[in-house]
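Why does this matter for the project? Reviewers at the last site visit asked to see concrete outputs rather than summary tables. In response, this paragraph embeds two records directly. Each consists of the residue sequence and, immediately after it, the corresponding structure tokens. Nothing has been edited or filtered.
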Amino acid sequence: MRMSAILPFAFGVSLLGACATGGNPAFAELDEPHAVLRELLQGDIDSTHQRTRLVRIDGQAVAGTRRTFLLTPGTHTLAFELDVDAWKEFDVGPRASDPDPGRLYADLNEKSIEVDLAADTLYTFGARVEDDRYVDWEPFVVERDEND
């Protein structure tokens, strides 16, 4: 009888651990060696560097509301989309094919890059943009000083 009570408890604890890391083996626990990956902060945004959303890590979807990630050291494939601010400005009116210089022609496709992350290191991710209409953008991940 005791063994039958222990098994559901042990199973529940293992599920809780999987939920804490999102079930993605790329996620690290706080007490494990890890790299910290975070989105650009408001003060880092300028005419050529904009926010993106990290949507996949090593092919597995991540919660769209997360802005900071603890990842295991090593090589990871990260997939990004432009952040919602670009979506809000995107106009899909009936004349979407007509050029309009004041309009956003964003490339809203998901883009991936492969990065090698080191333990105990802070990284920032975002998008390098060519112009204010986001016609061409590339995701980037850069190492940051923790005092930044």
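We now turn to the second protein, recorded in exactly the same manner.
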Amino acid sequence: MTSGFRSVSFSCPADLGNIIVARTLIARLIRYISDMHSLRKIAAFASLSIAISLPLQAGEMIVSREGDAVAIYFRMPFTEVAPLFGHRVPGLTNANGEIVFDTLAKGTFEDADVLAQKVAFNIGGQNVHFDALSMMAHQAIVPQAFETPIDAQIAIAVCGVPLPEGKPDPDKMTWIGGWYAYPVDAGQDISISFPETGRQDEVMSLRVYDRGRLKDTKTVTIVDGGSIDLPYQLTWRQRLFGG
């Protein structure tokens, strides 16, 4: 089973934003691999992978600021996607809300664009259009790694877990999706507003990366019709040396 990987898809080579996202992700991956120069780090990475394979319990978000681009990724229980975004998951569900996988081969970024139509993205006080990267559904008992922007990009690009036997149960599936904006000033406040749908509060763990480095980790609660506000804060290095 495959999924559209918008940021490196050869079907849209003229999209400069996709090229930039691919470039930055590859650069971060190379730097990460080069940093794993000891068996101790490799062992730590293996332990982390085992921990990540545990069943998913709550929603998660990753925000990646890359100078002139911002990428936002979500991972959450499949049944909570429609209430949060105000739209059934197009391309992955039929009119009855049942999960279908036979459409994934065509790519899912266009469906993810439809899913986010009722979500408002704002950077630096201005409404900004975010293009979908892709989205994917996995069995919750074997989730993909979701610690870094690279993890998230791989999880929405490739289905690395087996298909469920028989009819997929939405209660046992995890949904992952991602969007990006380019060119933008990533060093600005970010706000993401969600539609009012009558749902319960959505609690998510949030990790914010700035040019590949983890900058903030916290838990956020998204009330029905509410938003997530991410003010940009300079590090002491940035305050002293700029950048």
